[in-house]
Amino acid sequence: MSLIKELDYGTPIRLSEDEVTLTIDGVGVSVPAGTSVMAAAMSMGTKIPKLCATDMLEPFGSCRMCLVEIEGRRGTPASCTTPAENGMIVRTQSDKLARLRKGVMELYISDHPLDCLTCSANGDCELQDMAGVVGLRDVRYGKEVANHFETDSPLALPVDTSNPYFQYDPAKCIVCNRCVRACEEVQGTFALTIEGRGFDSRVSAAGVSFLDSDCVSCGACVQACPTATLMEKTVVEHGQPEHSTVTTCAYCGVGCSFKAEMQGDKVVRMVPYKGGQANEGHSCVKGRFAWGYATHKDRITKPMIRETITDPWREVSWEEAINRAASEFKRIQNDYGREAVGAITS
User: If we measure between CA atoms, which residue out of 295, 310, 197 comes closest to residue 250?
Assistant: First the structure.
């Protein structure tokens, strides 16, 4: 068993009856009109480096990692905010693009703690992944200037552990805005913002702790975060999960799909499954974080029946339990009429 990894196209998948055909790295591809160059590349298996982009959010174009070259156009546009067009010829790899991407990544890493071995996101960090993708091996900047991660730095901020389910570590924030945008576009709570200007800017829960803010703990910001800035406390405590399975949330009748991510038989976190028809990769606080009932000692995991209310429960097979329920419905209807049976479901 292994972790279920879902494809991230970088920008939302567009639906259109009209198609456009373009060439990416010498290969032709047809995609629905309105699709970004990044998503078009991903649809043919070409991953363009990215940090601020994810297909649960509208394109933003701030990280400058996804730069490409387009024949006949000046500069190096961001592939996430550039719509695919008929006849477009795109290059996702070149010496120029490699230098630009490595330079941008070097600036990110210059203001980021290099504690990967002890970081709770080690092995599940997009910043770590992208540093490897662009081949960054050395950082020339930030050694003798102010930063956000050294404890004695005037820019350093404490870790916010006020929320019962996740923590916020501003030292690891790359200001990609993904959490802010997820709060706005996915959840619609508008609890997060970017506070400060320029190098001083950081994600903020409106100037107060996450617990005291308008945050509803849906977890959309945690799911969107590409680093360990926003991280589930269960992962901080227990480490990264090793395998996962798709399951259905048992709290209500909506039927939200989740990836139960586990170590052995122990659940480490529940992540909304993008393929779920009911929730499409989002969830409420209960399904996302309040899954302790899954392993609670009082949880009923097998069908049980009893003859009378004073008898003890006894475990039976599903077949016997369903047959018993059906026979009792029939008995009650025979004794008291068809309208004597009602149901409340969830």
Answer: 295
- In this prediction, residue 326 carries a pLDDT of 95
Burial of 176 (0-12, 13-18, 19+ CB in 10 A): buried
Whether the CB-CB separation of 179 and 230 falls below 8 Å is answered with yes
Q: Tens digit of pLDDT for each residue in 245-304?
A: 999 998 888 999 999 999 999 999 999 999 999 999 999 999 999 998 888 888 888 999
- The 10 Å Cβ neighbour count of residue 284 is 20
Determine the topology of domain 19-93 in CATH.
Answer: Ubiquitin-like (UB roll) (3.10.20)
49: tokens are 């480096």
Kindly list the domain boundaries of the chain, sorted by start residue. Answer: 19-93, 304-340
Within 10 angstroms of residue 54's Cβ, the number of other Cβ atoms is: 24
pTM of the model: 0.89
- Contacts of 317-326 with C-beta under 8 Å, sequence gap 24+, read none
- Rounded CA-CA distance 222/260 in Å is 16
